[in-house]
Amino acid sequence: MPPAVAEALTERQKEITEVLQAKEDQAREMASTRATLTSQAKSPKTQLLAGTLAETIAASSRWAPNASSVDIEELKRESASIKRAALIRDLELRLLYVSITLFFFWYLIAQFSVPKI
């Protein structure tokens, strides 16, 4: 590729990069402005700090569904069945490993055993 063409391509690539960066910055500013306006419009009655326990409790009480004792029991049963299935899967894999190992040793013994005369 001629040097003039390579230089023109790199120049154009720099221009495109600058345009994309400007658009990204503009989009970030717009999102930031919208978030600020939204948070000001829906300001809580009490002051909450972002990422605190108070904020989490307030959000949970507002948006999370209340779990009944039936739901809690169902979750406990589901958790127990998942643990049981994982244990069974683990034991099956161990059994498979042992059976393959025994078969391999049996095969080696059969291959290298001295035939009786």
Q: Secondary structure elements and their pairing?
A:
Elements: H1 3-41, H2 53-63, H3 69-112
Would you kindly provide a written description of the structure presented here, covering whatever features stand out?
- With 117 residues, the chain is an all-alpha fold.
- It folds into two domains: 1-40; 67-117.
- Helices cover 80% and strands 0% of the residues.
- It has helices at 3-41, 53-63, 69-112.
- It is flat, with a radius of gyration of 33 Å.
- The mean pLDDT is 83.
Strand content: under 5%
Considering DSSP H and I runs of 4 or more, what fraction of the residues is helical?
Answer: over 70%
Could you tell me how far the N terminus lies from the C terminus, measured between alpha carbons in angstroms?
Answer: 80 Å
Count of folded domains: 2
Q: How many DSSP H or I helices?
A: 3
Structural class: mainly alpha
Rg from Cα: 33 Å
Shape: flat
Order of helices and strands: HHH
Biggest beta sheet summary: none
Number of strand elements: 0
User: Uncertain spans, ≥5 residues at pLDDT below 50?
Assistant: none
Average pLDDT for all residues: 83
In brief:
The chain has 117 residues and is mainly α. The protein contains 3 helices and no strands. The chain is flat and about 90 Å long.
